[in-house]
Amino acid sequence: MNTALAIVGIVIGVVAFAAAQDDLQCIENPTGEVSLNVAVRGIPGQQGPQGIKGDIGSRGQKGQNGDIGVQGTEGKQGVVGPGGPVGAKGEVGQQGVRGMKGSSGPIGPKGIVGSHGRQGDIGATGPRGNPGRAGFPGPKGLLGSPGDLLDSAQIQSLTETVVSSTAPKIQATVMQSITEVEAKVKVLNQALREEVMIELQALKDSIGSLEIVESKKCGIVGPWRRVAHFDTTNNDTCPPVLQTVLNPTTGQKACGRRASTLGCDLWQVPSKGLYTSVCGKARGYQSGNTLAFFPYHFPTYNQKTLNSSYVNGISITSGNLGRHIWTFAVGRTELVTGTSADAMCPCALNPPQTSPPPFIGDNYYCESGLRNRIVFRTAWEDVLWDGQGCFTAGNTCCARSGWFHRQLSPSSDGIQVRWCGYAGAATTDIPTDLVEIWVM
Ligand SMILES: *[C@@H]1O[C@H](CO)[C@@H](O)[C@H](O)[C@H]1NC(C)=O
Ligand SMILES: *[C@@H]1O[C@H](CO)[C@@H](O)[C@H](O)[C@H]1NC(C)=O
Fold this sequence. Notes:
Pfam families: Collagen (PF01391). By secondary structure, this protein is α+β, with helices and mostly antiparallel strands.
C-alpha cells in the first residue's frame, strides 16, 4: 500500500465518522466530485513487522445465479433402435354393446303352396241322383299265365281251323257290303255310276283272289316273329360283332369271326315277347382248322360249360348263355385222317368215337366242308348244314340238316348267337352268309 492511498483511507474514515457524529448531512454536487482538505500530522514511521495473520473469516454468502446461457443448436437424429419384443397377448376385450335394431328387410319370396287341409266331415246324405250314363269300357286285363302247351300238331290244326273258318266269312262279309253299295249306286247319274261300278268291281276282284297268308315255320303255322336275320347273298351287312369276308374268286360275301384267340363273338338279339318255340337256320362254310367239339373235350382248352367256347361253330342260347337252343358245329373232315376223333363230327365216319357235350344233347348239326384231306383253306364249295355235300360213305352228317326247331318252357329271354373257336379267326372260322331265327 502506498502512502497516498493510506491517507485517503484514513480521511474517508474520518468523514464517515463525522457523518455519524453529526445530524444527517447530505453532500450534494451535480458533478459528482468531492474535494477534501487533508492535514498530515506526522511523518509515518517505518513500517512495522508484519502482524500475525488473522483467522480466516467466515465464508461469504452465495452469489446470485448467472443468467441462462444461449441455447445450443439441435443435435442430429439418432439411429433407429432395434424393435422391442412382441408384447404379450392382450386380454379379451369386453363384449361390445348390443347394436341398434336394423331396418326391416325386403318382402321374402312367396311360400310354397301348403298341403291340402284335412278332409271335411262327410255331409249329410243327399237325395238319390239320376242314373249316370254308361261308362267307358275298362282297361284291358293283364296277360294271363300261359296255358298248357299244345304240341306242334295241335297248334297247326288249330291254326288251320281258325284260318279256314274265318277267312271265308270275312270274304263273304266284304262281298255282301260291296253288293249293297252297288244297289245304292244304281240311283246315281249314268257317268258317276259307271265310274263307281268299275272301282267296286276292281275291289271285288282283289278281295276274291286274296290269299290268306299263313306264317309257317318249321312246319308250324302261327304268329312267328323273326328275331334275328341277315343274308349277305341279299346284300345285307354283317352284324357288327362279325367282319365281312370275301370269296376272292367269286366275290361272295359272308360274315366271319373277329376273335383273335380262343373264344366267341357274341350277337345278342331281343326276343320281343314271350315264346315257347324257336325255329331257325344258318348257312356257313368251313375255314381253316375247324375242330367240332374238340375245345370241349381237349383238357388244355377246357371249355366245359355252355357259356364257354365249347365248339368250333355257331352256338345259339337264351337267357344270358344259360339255356342251350341249338349248335351248328364244323368238323375237321368227313372221316378221321390221322387227327383226333374229338375234332370230327360225331356223325363222321370211322368211327364216331366222339360225342357232343352233354349240355347240348342232340340239339345240334355238325358237318365239314373238307372231305378227307386236311387243307388250310375256306371250303366255299360246300355249304354247311344243308344236308348236302357229305360224300364219304358212312358219314351220316347230312341226315340232319336245315331248319332247327325247339319247343321250350315259356320265356321272353333274349337270344345269343355266338361264333366260337379254339383259336383266333385267322386259324379257325365259320364264314356265315345267312342266319334266321324265329320265335313264337
Ligand atoms: C349289292 O350292293 C352292291 C354294292 O353296294 C351293288 O352293286 C349291288 O347292285 C347290290 N345288289 C343288290 C341285289 O341290291
Ligand atoms: C359259366 O357257367 C358256369 C356254370 O355252368 C358258371 O359257374 C360261370 O360263372 C359262368 N361264367 C360266366 C362268365 O358266366
